[in-house]
Structure prediction request, 637 residues.
Amino acid sequence: MKTVPIYGMMAEFDSAKDLVVAARRTHGAGYKKIDAYSPFPVEDLADAIGFHKNGVPLVTLIGAIIGGLTGYLLQYWVAVVNYPVNIGGRPYHSWPAFIIITFELTVLFGGISAVFGMLALNGLPMPYHPVFNVERFAMASKDRFFLIIFSSDPKYDPAGTRQFLEGLTPRSVSEVPS
Amino acid sequence: MADHLEEVTVANKRSPVIEPGHTFASVTDKISSIVLTRPTSLGWFAGFGFTFLLTMMLLFALSYLFVKGVGIWGINIPIGWGFAIVNFVWWIGIGHAGTLISAILLLLRQSWRNSINRFAEAMTLFAVACAGIFPGVHTGRPWLDYWMFPYPNTMQYWPQFRSPLMWDVFAVSTYFTISLLFWFMGLIPDFGTLRDRAENKYARIIYGMLSMGWRGSARHWHRYESAYLLLAGLATPLVLSVHTVVSFDFAIAIVPGWHTTIFPPYFVAGAIYSGFAMVLMLAIPIRKIYGLEDFITDRHLQNSAKVMLATGWIVAYGYAIEAFMGWYGGNRYDATLLWNRLHGPYAFWYMSLLSCNILIPQFLWIRKLRNSPFWLFVLSSVILTGMWLERFVIIVVSLSRDFLNSSWGMYYPTKWDWMTFIGTIGMFLAAMFLFVRILPMISIFEMRTLLPEAEVKHQ
Prediction:
């Protein structure tokens, strides 16, 4: 039989508080390649696993700026350069009339960038992921909290890491096949 | 944990946002079981069947319209904007409450919104979809509607960006897109929950695909929350802009009764007013039928009633200023319009509008009525009628008598007008029926955050 490569070691906790405490201790113990899973956004959890930077605001800002420029320049080019129409003697570059569509496209591009940027940075959609090989992980979308140490972590060794996780008093510890 | 909630309740002397005694598991099971395990009732089939028939009536009316043209409607010169635009403005206004609840109340940290935002957003989407039909078919040649979008074409023409009707195209299509994104994004973690709970193989596959492999990683939640807040921040000015732009369709024109600067705020307030009325008309039966009184508590109904009372007064202020300016402004056409509204052929409808939107909603001051779902339902239906009449009065009464006596006229809707209008109500309700059956109508993950166990105190 072929041996399945191991993706990591996973511990299960009962409450958000336990998970945050365990995540802090794990990160403090020198494990850097870790992740935590919860059924709702838990305050401080990203901080506990050492994840601080988040690219979504920047992506959204860039999207919004591109949207605003697209909106204004499109109207300018159409109304002044390509298709100038004299409407009651108003100037071709009648900028106050262009503000609304500029604003709408700013919001449209910004919003699309926020959602699709979030999905892309999260690597979603992802039809297969090793964590789902653990049967109990189905509870992560209900009322259980999970912490994983990836096997790619330099400090990872099957026996030692299991012992470390058991020291955090979890509900269960399981190996995650990839 | 139950004690904690009870203490809060006693301290505030108000109903709680979520009834005490719930856990992560009970919240999850209660909401997901409606979709996954609860047998579909006969009532659901009857309701969906009936509203589906109304949708078919809409399709029939629209098909006949495409064959014959807009002549089958009651519109003619001088009243070229009849039911189609009345219904458009009414529907799009209804949608506004959904965005207000999901975006503005999120930014204001009104966590009570967590149990009503999902179906309020669904309401927004379906209402905007109904609204979008009307200007589309009102153009007369709806198969050429894509001409409204700027794209390079062999006719070498471009849309006229100085026209408020073009602004409307951009505002409404942006609004629909952003509302859809907001709604879908909120659903992703809940799709994950349904995927993990579903017994049926196909349900699991479909929810699994929709969840995009969501696994609740802390990194993902972190980015998710940023994106959610940013989207709320973008949707907030957007929702205020949409009805502002709709009001520009009127305010930029010179017709007496349209050409007024108070329109944008007064339209936005009216939109939220009617939207909350629709939220209540949907929430009250839904929570009763599906036994969701624990999640959509009396507190939600009371808060919505208070929002209606507040926005109702802004609308009343709008009417008062319109009348005052008609008298004080010294413009004889504005004065004539005021006289027309009060004594002209449509006086009955203007009086009905004032009763429905200003007089009768004052019953909301009475705490007993605010606490009674039955009376809230009745008052909400009155407000929705009133807001429809408001758009009717603004559009039809203003157009019926403009500057020249020779171009005065009356408007009589035909059966096709009514079939189209009632058909969109059917389409809206049919979509709601489908929504409560196949998607979690309350945001499961946001409900979990309302529970006291969700809090992580600093050590």
